[in-house]
Amino acid sequence: MHPRACTVGLIPDRTLETTGLHSSLPSSLSGMKLGQGGSSTPLLPLDGLQADREVEGTEGVDEDMIVTQSQTNFICPITQLEMKKPVKNKVCGHTYEEEAIVRMIESKHKRKKKACCPKIGCSHTDIRMSDLIQDEALRRAIESHNKKKYRQPE
User: Fold this and answer.
1) Would you give the distance in Å from CA 79 to the centre of its chain?
2) Alpha-carbon distance 87 to 37, whole Å?
3) Cα–Cα distances in Å, from 18 out to 26, 27, 35, 84, 92?
4) How are beta strands 86-89 and 132-134 bridged, if at all?
5) What is the pTM (predicted TM-score) of this model?
6) Residue 15: strand, helix, or coil
7) Which ranges carry the SP-RING-type domain (predicted)?
8) pLDDT tens digits for the chain (154 residues)?
9) Domain span including residue 89
10) What is the per-residue DSSP string for 86-143?
11) Mind giving me the DSSP string for 24-82?
């Protein structure tokens, strides 16, 4: 199992429990079994998921949701706060608040451990200080966003 993977409550036969929920789930989910670690077989048919996305489209998407999605780039994966001094990892391309990532790297290295990228799903397992560069473009975008957000109507 992947070191960052987590487990969910499974019944001993590795069948997902649907008690009380089965009536609201599509029939393709009933009796679904989890694949073994590393399996490339999807748990759900991808063509069904793709069809759902195509049918739903983007009509009726809430404008606030779109804005929220664009703002997630401003949030540090370590502090979960809006970044003020973003730095970019040259290796994996993820961005963090400078003070938070520096403290994390120093803390890990003091204990003779490697600092892994804190972005969920990232496989970069050895962040070094030399991998970090100031992300001026993102800093300016955050500042611009904040000016617009806090601008008072005239």
Assistant:
1) 14
2) 34
3) 11, 11, 17, 44, 38
4) antiparallel
5) 0.53
6) strand
7) 61-147
8) 444 444 344 334 444 444 444 444 444 444 444 443 444 444 444 444 444 444 444 454 555 544 554 555 899 999 999 999 999 999 999 999 999 999 999 999 999 999 999 999 999 999 999 999 999 999 999 999 888 877 756 5
9) 74-138
10) EEEETTT--EEEHHHHHHHHHHHHHTT-PPPP-STT-------GGGEEE-HHHHHHHH
11) GS-GGGTT-BPPPTT--S-SS-HHHHHHHHHHH-STT--HHHHHHHHHGGGB-TTT-SB
Torsion-angle region of residue 96: left (phi > 0), alpha (psi -120 to 50) or beta?
beta
Residue 116 sits in a domain of what CATH number? 3.30.40.10
Q: How far apart are CA 107 and CA 33, in angstroms?
A: 40
Structural domain includes residue 110:
yes
Q: Is residue 151, in this structure, part of any structural domain at all? A: no
d(CA 23, CA 1): 31
| Within-domain flag for 82 | yes
Instruction: Give the neighbor-by-neighbor strand order of the sheet with 95-97.
Output: 95-97, 86-89, 132-134
Token pair for 151:
């601008």
The amino acid sitting at 141 is A
Q: How many domains does the chain have?
A: 1
